Amino acid sequence: MSFRTVDYVEDVSPGSGALPPRAWYPSSDAASLSLNGSWRFRLSPTADAEDEAFAEPGYDSGGWARLPVPGHWVLQGHGSPIYTNHLFPFPVDPPRVPTENPTGDHLRFFDLPDDWPDLAEGGCVLRFDGVESCARVWLNGTDIGEFKGSRLPHEFAVGHLLRPTGNVLAVRVHQWSAGSYLEDQDQWWLPGIFRDVTLLHRPAGAVLDFFVHASYDHAGGAGTLRVDSDVDGRVTVPGLGIDVATGEPVTVPVKPWTAETPTLYDGVLATEGERVPLRIGFRTVELADGLIRVNGRPVLFKGVNRHEWHPRLGRALDPETMREDVLLMKQHNINAVRTSHYPPHPAFLALCDELGLWVIDECDLETHGFTEQAWRDNPVDDDRWTPALLDRAARMVERDKNHPSVVIWSLGNEAGTGRGLTAMSEWIHGRDPSRLVHYEGDQTCRDTDMYSRMYAPHAEVEQIGRGLDGGTRRRRELPFILCEYGHAMGNGPGGLADYQRIFESHERLQGGFIWEWIDHGIEDERYGYAYGGDFGEELHDGNFVCDGLLFPDRRPSPGLVEFKKVIEPVLIEGDGTGNTVRITDKQDFADLSAFAFEWSYQVDGDTVASGALAVPALAPGESAEVKLPQPPPTGPGEIQGTVRAVLAADTAWGPRGHVVAWGRFPVTARPVPSVTPSARPVPGERLITLGPASFDARTGALTAIGAVPVTGPRLDVWRAPTDNDDGAAWQTDTRYGLLWRRLGLHRMRHRLDAVEPEGDALTVRTRVAPAAREVGLATVYRWTSDGDRVKLTVSVSPEGDWTVPLPRLGVRLGLSAADRVRWFGGGPGEAYPDTRSAALPGRWESTVDDLQTPYVRPQENGARADVRWAEIGGLRVEGDLEFWFTARRWTTGELDAATHLSDLTPGDTVWVNLDHGQHGIGSQSCGPGPLPQYYLRAEPAEFSFVFSELG
Asked: How confident is the model over 158-167, as pLDDT tens digits?
């Protein structure tokens, strides 16, 4: 076989034979046939291992495998997936690719339906919505073309080749191609036909391309509609009384489309041969007065970056999964999505139109791996590649131009700078001046309409908001967005509330997009979920692919719950007296009429009174002071008030009563537990007793409270480092997780200095320190009792030069029998110092197992914040000062050693941490570490716990 037959694989051109790109629409009255389903499949190790005979009708493929399309063959038992963040998994020699180039031959046999139009009438188009990374196509033995651009549509005219029966569609897919150099996104490399394959009948006079222009005049409340069409026809919108010819503008009163109020009008584009349903949203996007404005108003993006992902199907998403994503976003107050880093399945954008999300639609372009050679030979600055770049831009814009949700086009991601990007920007601005253009890599903003950054720390974002960031005059006059921030890898991200306060303080700052939506864990019987390196890749980036607000199975992580709270559309603030709340509408467009409000009072976490609260339908930005009913009579307990904003009626994305915002405020202070010492320690031969407690006479260690055996407690400063503790290798900030381990905080030694049963107290003096270091923590445990309860007061004094903060500071104890946990404090989920906005004080109950947060790579998790008391294993623990509570069936060392959840085996002891403090989380896995106010500094501390046996 001649190598010339595969030259197309390494050709920098976008391909040959495909029709010009055009607008996508989900349906029409023209016939269509889905070719999804079971295909024949053969995998070869190289691009030229097999000849083209398989494409001929009559070829015997009986011995081939079968696999479903859409899909990725490496997730279907043929080969293995590869994960890299930015390194190319092959030698960098553009446009050349390795000889070892897995190549999948696909065959689909099909007959036309009986009611298919006569083949002499009109034509037919074969459409591929996504193939990675290069495909060559034959129909009934005829070569019809080849293409690159994995996440982009390609259509071919095939009417002249079709037969009523016995059609053979052959597709050869190569994993690597010249196009791979343009598709170095942070994700799994997954070859295959992973989106729909469809045969479309094109009647004579059918719709070709069309462009729906639907603008909105916010001053007069009118919308102007003009539908440009390559084929003449008429446009009707019955709800607006519109019936006009294509190309003819018409202005009528309308309700505008926004992400908060996604009003769509149903219409029809009718040509001689086809009727295409339209969903029209009227809105105007502009850059005015240095701000991104929609319908005349600035927009604050509360967004996420969304890769397409399913733990079994990869990027082959079904409609139900796409809808689930949008519903989850809406239900968690998210209002925007950046389609990182490629156009999504087009049906996803239709859901954004319907349910209401602002969209930054990003081109299928990333050349990040060239950073390893200082961007030398970067295709975006090489004129030979510019046609491919322009083809990718055109296929995105033309496909998605009729979606009102798309307000910004993005040129791509992490592709350096160059002439090709400028050409893309100029083409997009010329083709669609009704939208803005984004590209984070353009730091001069020469080609873009906004200043965009990734992972800028809080202080720098504040400076940018104040206009003190420097740069060109053009850049300083543009709005700013954080296209990526809050890296949601493992436990975290921390600091979201601090970012949001900065966003809301400066008009220039128009929000940001969390990285990212979902963990890309692959369902795996060995590990539960696999990540980079689990398939034997020679180059990989580990669990950096698991950095989402959703776990792989789409369960919300604590990070998503925190983000929902931080970006609430309604701000509810107590006045400190419990009599009045201040309600603020933080939406950009909608008033509060869609929400109902409820008040309640809690005593020690239990709700004792509740009712409806009348709140005026405030306009965006407006506030009102609202009087509350009188709180219950002051008693011995802690009284708090709560106001919730809930959906007043069922909506397309949430049921009536769904909570969108809440505020909790103190009415009376918490009574601090007290123990008046009355019992005295009683030394024995083996034990010292004090009230209900027993201690080892030699070590002073607690052994039991009443009939409940206890191991410990003793000082604990170690936590299994989170991904954010350890940080990323390229980070310039201090990576404390590494320093903690280097210092030896994971292997602290406990020296016993004295056991003193004197007076009404048992005092145990110790020094806790790591081997090989001079630093230590002088720790004194002082026990007292009133006969029924026992109180532990821990005093900690740092010794030596502590140059790092502590991971945690508290005590750890072991219980031999514990399952259910009840507590009064923050919940229901985990929280840490800079991730605690969503921790709602109340009474909660859980099993020990359900307290764990199942991060794909095990790490510190599961702490509950602001705990007043907890009951577990027959004990009640009360804090003098609220504390952090954690319980798990394995030690911190075992958690630290685990690389997958399958490594964790429950033991016979439940280990309980009662912490005075925790270090913050931050987002240093790809962003800034915790802010200084969330550091747990090594300084003198004293804290107390009161223990009693449950009756």
From this structure: 999 999 999 9
